Amino acid sequence: TFRSTVRAPGARKQVCVPVLEHFDTHYGEQLGQRWTAAREVLLHPRSWQHGVMLNRFAAPQDVREQLLLQGFSNLLPRSSGSSLQCFVHRSPVHVPSQRHQAGQLKQYYLLNAASLLPVLALDVREGDRVLDLCSAPGGKALAILQSATPGVLHCNELDAHRHEWLVKTLESFVPQTLSDVLKVSNLDGRLFGKIEAGAYDKVLLDAPCSNDRSWLFSGRPQHGALWLRERAKLPELQKDLLRSALEAVVPGGLVVYSTCTLSRAENSEVVQDILSSCPNIELQELNELALSFAHHFTFDPNTPFGLLVVPDYGRTWGPMFVSKLKKLC
Ligand code: SAM
């Protein structure tokens, strides 16, 4: 059973002051009043809501019923026709994560519900050839498999430990019968544009980013200084990965770029740079997606080139930036 008491994942973790100061300067200027709410949420892990994505391969009818009894509701109403089911609650109800049990698939995966937006934007259809370029620990790969059965789902992850974690996630949630669909690799995503040019219909680039939630609690101040140095290097890596992703799709193919930071330099500015240097790339509208989730997520109205979910009081989802690009030729 799920406890409806609030728990504090990471509540005892220490806030890294240089990181908070950096956020105050940059996000205060970028988001204005919206930063006040986002700051409150980010600083109080006790307030964080959790999404519960059901695993359609484990037939979790009992879990579904229990969630409904506890006051959870499905983020994607049945009328949406999606087989992806993610349950959310207005309060930060604690749901335990499931342990691995040999021979049994896990019934649900816990996530920040805004992480489903990149997957929904990618709109994978039966038979699509899909590349998840930066895949570990595998949450979005699982969400793709909940939505449809692609012809191929290639999950790639550079970091060796995170690659192992990815393999474990896939083993715990995906049945053996899908083994011919899944491919897992351990490569630098920047290589795919060369080694697999034009091989995919759709690519998800859920990019390495400065991950505002975890860096805020990165501990001692010296970690903050290291973080700020690393953060400055990220936009170049993100642009290289995005160029590689765009080369890996066929003409007419789609790439979704996402991050879990509010940083303009890692979000809109990355996309803007690609659009201004690649004339064959077209930005795709995401207005409909934003409209259908407006009652769950708070979007920043001033973010260009994509959608930005900003954590808000009682809607603690995000940060999440999503942008969708089409390769014309
Ligand atoms: N998509 C994942 C999910 O939903 O569970 C989260 C991905 S996380 C935001 C970004 C990942 O990119 C990290 O696991 C990181 O190790 C990996 N990464 C960093 N640099 C990379 C590169 N050059 N090529 C491929 N993966 C990389």
What tags apply to this protein structure?
single chain, 329 residues, alpha/beta, Rossmann fold, eight-stranded mixed β-sheet, disordered N terminus, binds S-adenosylmethionine
Topology of this protein?
Elements lengths: L2 E4 L10 H15 L1 H11 L7 E4 L6 H9 L3 E2 L11 E3 L4 E2 L13 E4 L4 H7 L6 E4 L6 H9 L4 E5 L3 H14 L8 E4 L6 H4 L4 E7 L5 H4 L5 H28 E11 L8 H10 L3 E3 L3 H6 L14 E3 L10 E8 L2
Parallel strand pairs: 7-8, 7-10, 8-9, 10-11
Antiparallel strand pairs: 1-5, 2-4, 2-6, 3-4, 11-14, 12-14, 13-14
The structure holds S-adenosylmethionine.
Written as H for each helix and E for each strand, in order along the chain, the element string is EHHEHEEEEHEHEHEHEHHEHEHEE
* CATH homologous superfamily classification: Vaccinia Virus protein VP39
List bound small molecules: S-adenosylmethionine
Number of helices: 11
Q: Biggest β-sheet, characterized?
A: 8 strands, mixed
What is the count of distinct domains? 1
Word description of this protein:
The protein has 329 residues and is of the alpha/beta class. It has one domain (12-47, 114-327): Rossmann fold, CATH 3.40.50.150. The chain contains 11 helices and 14 strands. The chain has helices at 17-31, 33-43, 61-69, 116-122, 139-147, 160-173, 192-195, 212-215, 221-248, 268-277, 287-292; strands at residues 3-6, 51-54, 73-74, 86-88, 93-94, 108-111, 129-132, 152-156, 182-185, 200-206, 249-259, 281-283, 307-309, 320-327. The strands form 3 sheets. Strands 7, 8, 9, 10, 11, 12, 13 and 14 form an 8-stranded mixed beta sheet that branches. Strands 3-4-2-6 form a 4-stranded antiparallel beta sheet, sandwiched between helices. Strand 8 (152-156), helix 6 and strand 9 form a beta-alpha-beta unit. Helix 1 (17-31) crosses helix 9. The termini are far apart. The relative contact order is 0.15. Residues 115, 134-140, 156-159, 162, 188-190, 206, 208 line the site of S-adenosylmethionine.
